[in-house]
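Chapter summary example.
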Amino acid sequence: MNIFVAIKQVPSTNKVQVDEKTGVLKREGISSKMNPYDLFALEAALRLKESCEASITVGTMGPPQAKAIIQEAFMMGADEGYVFSDRRLGGADVLATSYTLSQAIRSIGDFDLIICGKQTTDGDTAQVGPAIAEHMGIPHAAWVSDISIENGGVRVVQELQDVVETVWMPFPCLVTVEQDIYTPRLPSLKKKRETSDRPVSIVTLDSFIDTDPEHYGLSGSPTQVERIFPPENDVVHESWTGENMADKLFEHLIQKKFL
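The structure predicted for these 259 residues follows.
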């Protein structure tokens, strides 16, 4: 069985500047990490690999330095890794991002199962995974809290808003997993040594089936952002000393209409 896990490199801090002209995050010079939700997706793939014969491929859309999270995935047990990197892919919204990933996945092989984290910490849309499946024309399930291989497909448990639903889907298919599906394992020093020279392949737009640049990046994004800006820090600190602090605090809370 061939499993693909979509991962992403995200800023490790919430203090990120925004390009007011393009509306995208300025990632240069910002420390990064693997998207926490993708760690759960990778762990789910690794558990499946332990229970049946499987190969795990990880891939990320981003600049060449995103290969750092591919190498981290190698240290956890992934077998192959790709970075989908091309300047023409930059500035994509959810629709263009999901279309890019669907094309990228098709360009590197045929996969029985695609696993994504529920969402990313820098976007929080939780839409990219299901949108990839729609572009590829395959069944998908979101909010998955349990997954097992059964009868040429997967049986998953979905934690929906009001009900818990169990469904079976044939291969190929896609799932997005919840953060409580498994506890991610730590990278292994042994695997770090074993995979230190394992190559990370860079895939560009020219390798896709659809090579029309108008379908990607800002050109392929129907969403137009009018304005985007970092949140303003309006926290005011006030210190008090003296007696009757409880009464003063009570009056202050009433003035602020908290009571």
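To summarize the output: The longest strand covers residues 140-150.
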